[in-house]
Amino acid sequence: MVNLLFCRIFINRCKHVRKITLPFIIFALISQISFFTHATEEGSWYTVEAAYIEQSARYTQRRVGYYTYNEIQLPESAELTDSLRLVITQTSHDVLNADGIDENAQPYFNVNSLDDPIQVFFQTKRAAFAYTAELQQFIVPQADAWQFSYDFNTNEIQTENNNWEGWVYPAQNRGVMSFVAAAGEDGTAVYAYEDTSTNTNITQNGIRFNNRTNKDNINPWTEFLADAQGKTLQSVSLWVKVEKAVAGNVTVRHNLIPFPLIDDRKGPTLDAGLAQGPEYEMVIPAAANNTWVQIEFVDTKTDLKQFTIPDTWVHYDGQSAIQVYPQILFDGLEVGDKVYIDNYLIGEQALDNPCCEPVEDNGNSDSGSGSQSGGDSGNNSGGIDEPDYNLGDELSFNYHFDDNDIADNQGSQGWIYSIIDRGIMAFEADAGRSGSALSYTDNSENINPEQNGIYLQKWRDNPFTARFSNHGHIINSVKLWVKTNLTTEKDIEIIHYLLPYGLVSGNKQANYPAAVDASTKFVGVIPAGSSDWVEVELVLQDSNSGEFIIPSTWFGYDGGDLNIYPEFKFANTEVGDKIYLDDYQATSVVGEPLPIPTDFTIDYNFNDATVAQNGGWGFVLANYGTIGLEEQSGYQNTNAIAYTDISENENINNQSLLWHKWGNANPWSLAFGGGTIETEIKQVSLRVKVEKGQGNTATNDIVIKHHLLPWNVTLDGGKFGKVTAAQAISPDYTANISANQFGQWIDITFIDANTGLPTFSIPDTWVLTTGSDITDVLPSFFFGGLEQGDTVIIDDYVLQGDNALARSADTGPDEPAHDYGLHDGSGTYTNNPRPTPLPITDSDFYTEPTNFNVTRDLVQDYGVNNADTVDDTDIMQQALDEMSTELGGGKLIIPAGDYYFRSVHLRSNVHLEVEQGATFYMAQGGGWNVWMFEMGNDNEGKAENFSLVGLGDGFTIDLSIDRTADQNERVAVFKMGDIENFKFANFKINDNKTIFASFLVGITERDNDIHWPVNGIIENIDQSNSLFGYGLVQMYGADNILFRNLHSEGGITLRMETDNLTMKDYGKGGIRRIFAEDIRGTNCLAPVMFGPHFQENGSVQVNGVTATSCGFAVRVDDGFVELFSPAGESYTRDGWRTAVEDEIGQGCAAQPYKRGVNQWASRINPVNNCLDVVHQKYGLKPGWFEESYIYNVTVINGQNAHLKQNQLDYFSLTNPNCNNVCLPTTEHWSRRGNVYIGPAIGGVFDKNEAGVDYHFNINVYNLNMVDFTEPYHQIIDSHTSSQRVCSYYGVPDCPDDRWE
């Protein structure tokens, strides 16, 4: 029998993952026992956590349905009651003939014998098949004994949020908690705590069981002790094993904390509970290290083992239930030391022979405030062990540049460029003062020193992070040895920053400037005429003392890691100047630790504001007013934003300003996005001036309302619906301007009209429709009481807040999201049916221009001859550049005729309208990988607000005639990078089986970051003669794009394969919020393809897919991780596989394949241990898509589908003689065997399934198969059988007409 007090209530939380190689066996000892089919005693059903349900293949019984056999496997140590049942917790198909339905409306089957598999029947239907099951046992509570035990056999470690339910840390980043199987004193599982910090404060080193008071209780201490006032705990014991590198005493402290006894913030409330609870301790002496011992605690407040629960253990409101948090803390540990704990017991009698006696500590531990640590850390030790130090210690730090730490690229670890293409960095072996050095050579005429330099980007094993993230330490000296080789003699200035990287949410584009702003600046001068090594003292700027105290504001955003990146920049250099760096030294003093600030400010002065419906200040509803940027008309002659009423309508909801800006460029999103529930807004103020229109005499108050709109709390109703839903849960900040204040600047402080207070606490309702944290918050202003012609000018907005209580959104009763890659990837597959598609509104994707500054004609105004074959690229580029930069944008008309373009760069605010009858050809020229049109790539900067649209029946882009000097198959049409608010529509593309999709919706690298297309529409495009593996659209990175009415003959129409290697380097990219309608393919691989590779992607919706003679209508590949051999290093296939397995683990590397020139790629086998190592070493994990939806799929049979070699084996059911399958010749395609032509195979190819790590769910609704004869494949999944029936290289050659 299982002791009730060991049981944990986790019904509906059982996770099933791939079977692991532990010695699970059928529990034969009790296999012949018959069990009761139901329980008649008073008790409860509990999940048997140790049980594993082995599911058989799926079978079919005529006139009944599908069925499976379910074998229950248990470890030998499992103890069970007599009443067992198998519960189907989740299922894609209805369960038939169950023995009953449980209290959660889940079907169950009584288990009469563990020796017999349980047969479960399911209703048949055409859908992906998956289910999960768990074993439950009925337990009758024990009546008399008042005791409690907890065995640590269930993994309840909270990995997602340190404020959520489960075992958490009193202070993060002091140690690492882990669940260790079969390591206990009784052979069962235990918890381990490993010290990873030099911090010695006992109150911060350990673990605590957390359970929010507004959540269902899963805390067994609360069940046992919350209502136990007046009862006495006679004995509290714990099994402990201490592993220390150097033997020493270790103190174990145990608190029982009643919560909440007072109504205050969490910290003071915990302190109040600590004061009312016992403070048990026991010291494990050095002699008892490295062995299991059972300790019995003594309350240090009374020196007694007993503790009587006082009457003060009551909720502060006098009515609600309290929680009782157990806390177990450790002192005397050093970095790397580990403590194991097992079998906690509150007993009625003292132990007969416990280990250890209360002994005096030898001074190695400190149970006080921890001030001896001399400063808290900015959330990261950098992976380097710092020495122990005390307040006032003088420290010396040295960095010698002796290792070649130059990064492979801007996204990798190592020394990188502050701005690329300004200089050349090199590792100078044996060229330093005593070893090696690092050099930087200026190769640019740029004279801005802030762009001329290098910094050490290192997030692992970074000694600068370890030393300079200690709050309160005082840096008093920084020196560097330098040597120069200059083209002309002059002083060279060295600028040095210690960049606190990780202060804000987002990528490098946000974090690098934030780090520069927060960093201290040291400056030194290399005097002219210095020909040898000189020591330069780097002097702190803007400081009278010359000392810098590391501030507590250097703290990782949202509790994440903060890294310190040293940066060196060079002023007064010219092209050819070379500077050598060596022997960096900094001295510091250990200062008093500083508290982490929780207050923050949004200070927005409108100086850099823009007016735009997409990317700037615009309207909620247009045509009621005008918005303008008032240059030098703001407070104290700064810029400001003005709103002028142009309508007689007096409804305040129509007179509006809304900032249409998303992401890290929006300070409101930075402050309130990503987990800020319970953040408090203290006050919001604004400077305002009201100017009455000419002849307006009304003296009523002008009302200004201000809302902070959490965006996408609904997806209904377009922009107005999103605004309305957000207003309902936003503060209704209101202020009035009286008539006697008109015409002057007034400082207003907003008051929430709902509460009458200036404060507002972010509520739980600030969540996305998915239940996850808000990403963006858009500020809005509304103006009431205006007359037509009145103007309101706003400036100097200030919001003050406090995020001490900030937390992530509660996503409901289900388990929190996983840390994919470490632990498991089981949470990637979700099941949220959506039988009808979400509505589409074009304005959510693209904002049409309302007017044009100018209209120009490419022939009439710029002199292009559209009747010749001359290259028109230069004239076209001149027209685009002039209209964008000199004329403020406009419309460029391209008349009917022939045009020859090559690498034309589309520009912001220029809209191209192409007349019917125009044809674009690729102009002659050299190069490798050539596009006709490019936009927003490399260092050209962002392109926004532009379009290319065909008029009438559209125009043609013709790649069928190759006019390159040497035939080049690597040509395409559109290379899309950092672009926003764009539209491409209404034309045909005559392809030439070129490599690359015509639309490369890609990424570009610029300013130490990557960028990709955002907000656009691509529609009404028909492409012919596509190459099998490419086609019309390829997406790497994309946000919020609509694809509509697209067709490709051959290849793939909409290919969502996110495999760009630069995204891997930066750890970001992928696609999100993708919508598509009417996607068609003919003689193709598939109209729609999902291929995540290593990238985490958002959700996709496709409504309408038609596949005519294609391999499949929808192809879904699963994600994976692969490692590439280093560029420039020579490996064989087997050599690279061996190298990968030496680093990652034996059996982890799949057979490598060739990628590029002399480079090999090896996929990592989908084994959790292998994936964990890759994630820890490289930050990589298999990719996936958020749950996505495809509607109304039509699959029409045909004989000229493009097929991959590994798909031919599915003909074993539908075409066992391999009829009508042919292989293109080498004249057709040089890489023979890449593609075949033959009959269509089926509707959907998708081997993802629930319960498999990193798999994901693509829902397909209304799949229609046309002109197929039985048998045929509607869906090919992981259960579909196949065998080789085609001779891969023995099938007939394809005739020309089937290839062409």
Question: What does this protein structure show overall?
Answer:
By secondary structure, the chain is mainly β. It folds into 6 domains: 4-139, no CATH class; 148-371, Galactose-binding domain-like (Jelly Rolls, Sandwich), CATH 2.60.120.260; 394-595, Sandwich (Jelly Rolls); 600-802, Galactose-binding domain-like (Jelly Rolls); 854-967 and 975-1121 and 1186-1276, 3 Solenoid (Pectate Lyase C-like); 1123-1184, no CATH class. 8% of the residues lie in helices and 36% in strands. It is built from 12 helices and 82 strands. The strands form 14 sheets. Strands 50, 51, 52, 54, 55, 57, 58, 60, 64, 66, 68, 71, 77 and 81 form a 14-stranded parallel β-sheet that branches. Strands 25, 26, 27, 28, 29, 30, 31, 32, 33, 34, 35 and 36 form a 12-stranded antiparallel β-sheet that branches. The longest helix has 13 residues, at 873-885. Mean pLDDT is 85; it is low at 1-40, 359-379 and 811-823.
Summarize the structure in short.
With about 1300 residues, the protein is mainly β.
Largest sheet: 14 strands, parallel
SS field, number of helical segments: 12
Q: Which CATH C-level class of the largest domain is it?
A: Mainly Beta
CATH topology of the largest domain: Pectate Lyase C-like
Q: State the fourth-level CATH superfamily of the largest domain.
A: Single-stranded right-handed beta-helix, Pectin lyase-like
Number of domains: 6
**Estimated helix fraction:** under 10%
The CATH level-2 architecture of the largest domain is identified as 3 Solenoid
The number of distinct β-strands equals: 82
Poorly predicted spans = 1-40, 359-379, 811-823
Average pLDDT works out at 85
Estimate the global geometry from the Cα principal axes. globular
Strand content: 35-45%
Radius of gyration: 34 Å
> What is the terminal-to-terminal distance?
73 Å
Summing up helix and strand content along with how strands pair, one would put the structural category as: mainly beta
